[in-house]
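> call design_seq(struct)
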């Protein structure tokens, strides 16, 4: 056991003790980003620069990193922060937290913890790793901020990022997180099961992980990974924990409720808590208060519960979750009223409850809800909920019992009870609603209600008088429930109303008469309650099935309407009466009573509803048949008695029956056989009525709506309504012409929903066209199957003969909208209609008598005439599912058509050959289909003289003007070649690609070009996207420049107006674009560079611009890149190559995918010096400050001119490409790169933050080019640009690279280096020498190695050895000796030793030592010998480094002896 003394000593141990324990061993830096060995190569300055850039990137990703206030801590309180100043500033770079006060360290911890929490969503991004590396190296967060680090990394427990952080994390063996130590040493990811086991073993770990999500929600830094981690981990923990006691629930429940109580709107957060609450409820019995709090928190997350726009989960999700949670909890009496009211405000809450009645335990949610809402029964939402539960068929009996108990208590509430609780109006409304709901219970659960009433009464007072009083009240209440009408105040009215619901029809008739008498006698003096009761009773008699009651009801129609309509709208009254007529029609006399009322008093009182009466209530009874003639006649008699209709469908229809002498007398006796004469009269009446209704529809103002209603009758449950609707539609077709007729026919076809012509008796086309024949079938058996088929056939038989629209503009071979979409263009509608008729007739050829289907096809082809072949091709190419079944039939008809026109004066069918190839390549074509296609193609290749070309300039409509044609010989050769490969093409249609490649490779070039142009002209003009793609794919492997010329207009439309093409092709747009671009790019560089062609190059350029955008087609972009790299770019002249590169640079400036593609392509294209120089001149800044020295850059970047903004990003990309790829060695190129660098340095438009990267890339490019030059250049290189850059830059990386470049250029232009040598070393002494990192020291060494020899050579040339040389070199040597104090102490000796060796120790060791001694002479003279010895350590150690001979030379230097 640890003693008290040991604990005190451990507490007082230095925070840096681990760094001071053993200095004999080399310490490896702890690093998150680098391995131990690599970490030592990067000093703090380099890491700081890296982190500063990464922090800027993070600020662009999220504004939270730039915020001055963030939410922090477990309570989400606001914290003032400045991450840039506290963590990434120059002051932070030199901050040592181990030397700060506790207050400063506490503030620093708050900033670090708040910043680390914000990194959660971005942990997998590269900038985050760089920032974390800085925080580890500078602030040692892996040691001092372990909880914050674990909170950040644990959600990513299976990623390698946690493994990296664990390897450097300081976890004490006795801490709660010691379970991580084995994974730290093993360097393995952390499985979730390990985390869950640690939570089960240690409550502190469980509390820590449970609070991760609530804290993130409070502080607004939630991310999806954390949400998924929390849901999965907590689910496993709750499920596997041996016991969940009160201590564990104390942090689990708040962790689950906090996300629900926040203002976040992420549905995933709420649903995650819902799932976990369900899991928790199955493990423990929650206390009532806890369960109430859970339900309240959940209701706040439902959309619509607290108003529009609030909430994130649906009502269904809430209800299901709440039911599951409560199903296992039995000790909750009721929910908070506020939560229950929110439930009733949810959209569809009652319906969702009713769907879950079968779930076991659903009552544990419903009962507390109902108890809390009982006093609010007067609110509409609450009463609707109660009503829904009562009407639910599978509601648990316990729910109905409790609901009844609540309602009985409310309904039996004395009117004078507790007057102070609620106002009188609310109390009365509550009682009325409760009684109304109890009446519903009485209808469905009579015995249950009676038992509940007895139970409630048994809870009454102790005295017998109280019990008798409540018993009497309950009996009255139960009696009142038997009525569906509100109770009246007058006992007389109540008596009449009760009598109206009597089982005796005589009593009901008397009650109706007494109600009318009461209304007439009262003369508007009835109370509101009495009037409401009478209104309800009269309306209820409309449901009566006895004609005597209805006659009594409709005896005073005016009084009936004036009483009922004020509270029940005319539409509701019409719906009530109509509901008695359908779906099972009532007795004839009842039907006549209702019809007489509707056609007479009701229509006259409410003429606006005349159309509804005719179309909805009366239409199913207007068609006469042998079986239902009397019923129909009674309806027409009722209509006639009402005066008939002067408007609507039935205007003038009564006259039809009058003319047929069918009203008022027997025509078809019920007890005797029918005569042909009577049936024919009825048939004529039916046809006449149908024709008259059609006439009325056509002249109506809203004929379209009338037709929609009429078509809905096709599927009416009453057969008479269906038959009459078909007859009316047939009459409509007969009465219309032109476009109207075609549109109607298409609507009729869609409404019939036919997939084939059903079998019927021997119905011929002539019989289907004869109205009397079909009408007699209707009279005999209107609901028969054969009758319906005959009615459908009577309409279908008319359609094939419909004439072509007068202004027919659509191509027969064109894309037609789907069957369920009626085309707005009559021409397209006509084509679609013919295709549907063809499909019906073809698919029915084997299932119906051949006469009908064959006749329909004959009429169709006779009507289409020469257009039949184009029509069949459109059918084959259509993607409509209904036409797929007739592909083989269509191919057989195509073959027959071509054979029929292949005589001596045959027609040239070359226009259909591309479409046949497209059908051949269609995936829906099987072997039989392909064999038929090739048989048809074999007929096309016959060499006999052709009379004319089929469909010339008309096949594709207006697009046919772009078609090209081949002569008979070429057509015969091509068709014969296809037929010769029939075996392969029949087996595999894809073989056509290999066929085309072999065929055209062995063919004459002119022939190949003619056939390709012929095929490609159809690619340009064909209306079917699938055909275009098929043709392009078939010649994909054929190389010929004619493809690019033919596809030029397609390419132009793709780049200039792509929206129509994208809409046309839909999901097939990508393969189409790839094929078109690949074909267009078969062009040669000579064609692109031709001055005679002024179209190809602009289209090529526009395509390059269009497809090198981030959102463009990636495959087309890749095709462009390959074509430029492999064939086209090298053959272009300089101007056009520069234009291509300019487009790529501008496209890459937009970022995203275009940047990557442009950068990769430019790296392969930029290999020509002249081209690179052209681009540098184009994008370098034009405006410069002056020719003088440039001042140090300001801290804030200036705002660039608009004209210069567009140059920065392209120039940055160009510099990046030049700096990272191999470029040629050229003095001109180096000079232009330096000139560009000079203009950037001198420009006042671009700030240092914009240009640092560009400068570094340009320096790299200069170095790459210079490395390829082996001979000294003829003219000097301007190095003053680099000197100026060294002088003005604040970026240490730029400074170092410029020094290295200067050193490398010293071998090529020593004179230029010599001219600038003093400024070079001056700036190096002031900027680089003092840096304590290996890279900077290496830069200094390389600079000395390459530049100092040039200076030595110059000095020795100007000065002889001796004092003159020392004097001449003094200023140069002073640069180093004066900066000696700024050089890190442990690097001073190494630097001066290296400098001396490069200068030459024999010559310059003495002056260097003398200048070093001279620098400290004044100070050493005033010191003690021991102190002076320490002061002279540097010159002494430098001297001792060399051998004794050189030491003697320094002690007795010869240069002081003059000769």
């Amino acid at each position: 056991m640890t003693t008290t003394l040991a604990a005190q000593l451990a507490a007082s141990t230095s925070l840096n003790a681990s760094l001071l324990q053993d200095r004999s061993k080399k310490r490896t830096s702890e690093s998150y980003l680098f391995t131990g060995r690599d970490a030592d190569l990067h000093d703090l300055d380099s890491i700081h620069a890296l982190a500063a850039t990464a922090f800027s990137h993070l600020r662009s990703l999220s504004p939270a990193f730039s915020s001055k206030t963030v939410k922090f801590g477990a309570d989400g309180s606001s914290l003032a922060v400045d991450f840039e100043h506290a963590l990434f500033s120059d002051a932070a770079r030199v901050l040592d937290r181990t030397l700060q006060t506790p207050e400063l360290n506490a503030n620093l911890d708050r900033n670090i913890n708040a910043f680390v929490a914000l990194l959660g969503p971005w942990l997998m991004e590269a900038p985050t790793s760089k920032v974390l590396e800085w925080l580890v190296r500078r602030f040692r967060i892996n040691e001092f901020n372990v909880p914050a680090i674990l909170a950040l990394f644990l959600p990513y427990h299976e990623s390698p990022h946690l493994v990296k952080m664990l390897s450097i994390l300081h976890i004490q063996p006795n801490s709660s997180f010691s379970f991580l130590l084995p994974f730290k040493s093993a360097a393995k990811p952390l499985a979730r099961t390990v985390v869950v086991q640690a939570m089960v073993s240690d409550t502190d770990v469980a509390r820590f992980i449970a609070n991760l999500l609530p804290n993130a929600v409070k502080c607004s830094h939630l991310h999806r990974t954390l949400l998924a981690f929390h849901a999965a981990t907590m689910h496993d923990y709750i499920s596997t924990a041996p016991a969940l006691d009160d201590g564990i629930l104390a942090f689990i429940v708040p962790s689950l409720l906090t996300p629900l109580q926040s203002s976040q709107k992420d549905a995933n957060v709420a649903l995650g808590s819902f799932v976990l609450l369900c899991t928790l409820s199955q493990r423990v019995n929650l206390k009532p208060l806890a369960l109430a709090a859970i339900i309240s928190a959940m209701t706040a997350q439902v959309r619509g519960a607290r108003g529009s726009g609030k909430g994130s989960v649906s009502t269904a999700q809430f209800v299901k979750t709440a039911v599951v949670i409560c199903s296992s909890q039995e000790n909750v009496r009721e929910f908070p009223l506020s939560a229950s009211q929110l439930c009733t405000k949810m959209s569809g809450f009652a319906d969702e409850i009713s769907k879950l009645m079968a779930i076991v335990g659903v009552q544990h949610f419903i009962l507390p809800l109902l108890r809390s809402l009982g006093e609010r029964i007067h609110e509409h939402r609450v009463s609707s909920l109660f009503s829904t539960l009562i009407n639910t068929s599978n509601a648990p009996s316990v729910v109905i019992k409790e609901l009844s108990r609540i309602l009985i208590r409310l309904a039996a509430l004395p009117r004078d009870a507790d007057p102070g609780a609620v106002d009188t109006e609310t109390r009365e409304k509550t009682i009325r609603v409760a009684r109304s709901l109890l009446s519903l219970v009485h209808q469905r659960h009579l015995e249950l209600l009676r038992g509940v009433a007895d139970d409630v009464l048994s809870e009454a007072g102790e005295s017998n008088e109280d019990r008798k009083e409540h018993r009497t009240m309950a009996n009255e209440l139960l009696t009142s429930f038997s009525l569906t009408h509100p109770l009246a105040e007058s006992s007389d009215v109540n008596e009449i109303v009760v009598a109206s619901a009597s089982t005796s029809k005589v009593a009901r008739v008397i009650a109706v008469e007494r109600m009318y008498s009461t209304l007439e006698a009262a003369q508007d003096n009835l109370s509101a309650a009495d009037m409401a009761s009478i209104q309800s009773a009269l309306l209820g008699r409309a449901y009566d099935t006895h004609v005597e009651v209805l006659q009594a009801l409709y005896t005073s129609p005016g009084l009936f309407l004036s009483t009922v309509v004020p509270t029940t709208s005319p539409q509701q009254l019409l719906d009530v009466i109509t509901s008695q007529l359908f779906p099972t029609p009532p007795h004839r006399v009842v039907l006549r009573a209702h019809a007489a009322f509707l056609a007479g008093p009701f229509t006259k009182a409410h003429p606006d509803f005349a159309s509804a009466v005719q179309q909805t209530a009366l239409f199913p009874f207007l068609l006469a048949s042998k079986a239902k003639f009397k019923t129909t006649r009674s309806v027409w008699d009722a209509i006639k008695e009402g005066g008939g209709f002067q408007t609507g469908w039935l205007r003038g229809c009564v006259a039809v029956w009058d003319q047929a002498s069918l009203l008022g007398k027997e025509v078809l006796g019920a007890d005797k056989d029918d005569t042909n004469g009577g049936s024919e009269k009825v048939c004529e009446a039916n046809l006449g009525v149908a024709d008259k209704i059609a006439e009325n529809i056509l002249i109506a103002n809203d004929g379209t709506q009338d037709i929609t209603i009429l078509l809905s009758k096709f599927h009416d449950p009453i057969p008479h309504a269906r038959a009459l609707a078909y007859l009316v539609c047939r009459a409509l077709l007969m009465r219309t012409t032109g476009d109207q007729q075609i549109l109607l026919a298409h609507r009729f076809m869609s409404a019939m929903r036919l997939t084939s012509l059903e079998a019927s008796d021997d119905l011929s086309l002539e019989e289907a066209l004869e109205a009397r024949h079909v009408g007699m079938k209707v009279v005999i058996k209107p609901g028969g199957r054969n009758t319906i088929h005959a009615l459908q056939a009577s309409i279908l038989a008319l359609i094939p003969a419909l004439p072509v629209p007068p202004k027919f503009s659509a191509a027969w071979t064109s894309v037609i909208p789907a069957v369920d979409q009626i085309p707005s263009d009559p021409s397209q509608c006509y084509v679609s209609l013919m295709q549907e008729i063809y499909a019906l007739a073809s698919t029915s050829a084997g299932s119906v008598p051949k006469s009908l289907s064959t006749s329909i096809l004959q009429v169709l082809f006779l009507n289409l005439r020469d257009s039949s072949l184009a029509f069949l091709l459109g059918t084959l190419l259509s993607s409509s599912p209904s036409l797929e079944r007739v592909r083989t039939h269509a191919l057989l008809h195509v073959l027959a058509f071509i054979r029929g026109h292949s005589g001596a004066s045959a027609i040239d069918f070359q226009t259909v050959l591309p479409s046949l190839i497209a059908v051949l390549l269609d995936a829906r074509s099987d072997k039989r289909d392909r064999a038929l296609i090739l048989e048809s193609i074999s007929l096309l290749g016959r060499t006999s003289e052709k009379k004319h070309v089929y469909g010339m300039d008309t096949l594709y409509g207006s697009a046919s003007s772009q078609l090209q044609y081949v002569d008979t010989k070429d057509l015969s050769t091509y068709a014969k070649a296809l037929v010769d490969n029939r075996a392969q093409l029949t087996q595999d249609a894809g073989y056509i690609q290999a066929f085309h490649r072999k065929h055209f490779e062995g063919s004459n070039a002119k022939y190949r070009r003619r056939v390709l142009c012929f095929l490609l002209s159809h690619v340009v003009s064909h209306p079917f996207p699938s055909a275009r793609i098929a043709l392009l794919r078939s010649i994909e492997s054929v190389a010929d420049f004619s493809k690019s010329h033919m596809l030029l207009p397609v390419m132009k439309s793709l780049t200039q107006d792509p929206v129509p093409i994208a809409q046309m092709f839909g999901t097939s747009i990508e393969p189409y674009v790839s094929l078109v671009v690949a074909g267009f790019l078969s062009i040669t560089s000579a064609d692109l560079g031709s001055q005679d062609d002024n179209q190809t190059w602009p289209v090529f350029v526009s395509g390059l611009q269009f497809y090198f955008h981030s959102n463009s087609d990636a495959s087309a972009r890749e095709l462009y890149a390959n074509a430029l790299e492999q064939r086209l770019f090298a053959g272009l002249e300089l101007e056009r190559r520069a234009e291509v590169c300019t487009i790529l640079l501008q496209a890459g400036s937009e970022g995203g995918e275009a940047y990557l593609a442009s950068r990769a392509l430019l790296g392969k294209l930029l290999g020509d010096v002249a081209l690179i120089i052209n681009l540098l001149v184009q994008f370098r800044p034009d405006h410069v400050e002056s020719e003088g020295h440039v001042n140090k850059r300001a801290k804030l970047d200036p705002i660039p001119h608009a004209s210069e903004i567009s140059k920065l990003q392209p120039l940055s990309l160009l510099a990046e490409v030049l700096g990272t790829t191999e470029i040629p060695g050229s003095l001109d190129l180096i000079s232009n790169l330096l000139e560009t660098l000079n203009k950037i340095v001198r420009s006042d438009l671009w700030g240092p933050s914009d240009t640092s990267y560009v400068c570094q890339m340009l320096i790299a490019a200069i170095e790459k080019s210079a490395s390829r030059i082996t001979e000294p250049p003829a003219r000097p290189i301007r190095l003053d640009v680099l000197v100026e850059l060294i002088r003005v830059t604040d970026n240490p990386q730029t400074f170092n690279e410029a020094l290295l470049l200067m050193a490398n250029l010293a071998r090529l232009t020593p004179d230029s280096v010599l001219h600038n040598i003093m400024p070079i070393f001056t700036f190096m002494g002031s900027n680089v020498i003092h840096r304590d990192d290996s890279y900077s020291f290496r830069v200094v060494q390389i600079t000395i190695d390459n530049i100092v020899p040039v200076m030595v050579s110059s000095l020795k040339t100007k000065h002889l050895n001796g004092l003159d040389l020392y004097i001449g070199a003094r200023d140069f040597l002073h640069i180093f000796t004066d900066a000696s104090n700024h050089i890190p102490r442990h690097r001073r000796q190494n630097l001066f030793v290296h400098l001396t060796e490069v200068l030459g120790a024999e010559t310059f060791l003495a002056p260097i030592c003398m200048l070093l001694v001279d620098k400290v002479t004044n100070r050493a003279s005033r010191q003690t010998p021991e102190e002076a010895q320490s002061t002279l350590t540097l010159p002494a150690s430098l001297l001792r480094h060399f051998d004794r001979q050189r030491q003697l030379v320094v002690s007795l230097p010869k240069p002081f002896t003059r000769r």
